[in-house]
Amino acid sequence: MADVLNDIRPISLEEIEAARARIAGTIVRTPLVKLELGSTHRDIYLKLENLQPINSFKLRGAANAVAMLAPDRRADGVWTISAGNAGQGVAFAARKAGVPCTVVTIETAPETKVERMRALGATIVKAPFDACWEALDRRTFPGLNATFVHPFDDDDFIAGNATMGLEILEDLPSVAIVIAAFGGGGLVGGIASAIKPRAPHVRVFGAEPETAAPAAASFARDAAATFDEWQVSFVDGAGGKSVFPRMWERIKDIVDGSIVVSLDETKRAMRTLAEKARVIAEGAGALPVAAALSGRVEGEGPIVAVISGGNIDLAKFCELVA
């Protein structure tokens, strides 16, 4: 049974502050550290969401969404769709809340992430990418009747993500630009929802791989767009085949654009993070750093690059950065 869709509306600062209080006992207030590259480079700061208990920012939104679960639906549990990080977030939050969790996961999802979801108590159902993408739009999947936690188009999930924006403004009041990976839009949309009302001069950008960049196409057309050249890559936590029309309505007036980077630039960013900051970032987590280092970000002032996750098989990581 599909959930009733709420109308698209702005996520208020009051909701975000309430989410921050609600999830404080579950998430970590992650550090903001400078990436030391020398005086010839623009100041780049790293928001280290890879240090969350599930090594991904997704715990913020998942913890808030599960906490808002209606009491009469708790016994039925929750389900979500994920390539790995959102599934881990929902599974972690569901286990803490004592409710069942099922994750419909993409067949090509890294086995490392799948095993971590299982370890957190999730029941795994694998499906092709297209089936998962369609289920995200329909909000239904055969055989599942629990409460669906949408991994990006959900007010409570976005409000949880947005708590990161509050932390960035508090820790670096001089921030000029924030860049975060764009998958479904819930991360950049949440960050912008927190930042724009308090600091409208701060620009918020998504970052996408060249193999999956529907957000950049959407901003170019000023309408939700598909990306016909979509390809599978090691950047499994970002880049879809399209921007959902509902998500376009959420982000179009508060997000300033999306920066497209190559896979080679992403690999170099992963290596730079490992060498300079001893940070292990998955592909999606390195996209913002690749964008910040690309020279495609105009303007002055400090950049915050959100390291959205670090869930990557170490052997694969070594292969990519070697």
Give your account of this protein's structure.
The chain is of the alpha/beta class and 322 residues long. The chain has two domains: 13-57 and 155-321, Rossmann fold; 59-148, 3-Layer(aba) Sandwich (Rossmann fold), CATH 3.40.50.1100. Helices cover 40% and strands 15% of the residues. The chain contains twelve helices and ten strands. The strands form two sheets. A six-stranded mixed sheet has the order 1-2-10-7-8-9. It has a four-stranded parallel sheet with strand order 5-4-3-6. Strand 7 (177-181), helix 7 (186-195) and strand 8 form a beta-alpha-beta unit. Helix 1 (13-23) crosses helix 6 (155-171) and helix 10 (263-277) packs across helix 11.
Key features?
4-stranded parallel beta sheet; 6-stranded mixed beta sheet; Rossmann fold; 40% helix; alpha/beta; 12 helices; single chain; 322 residues
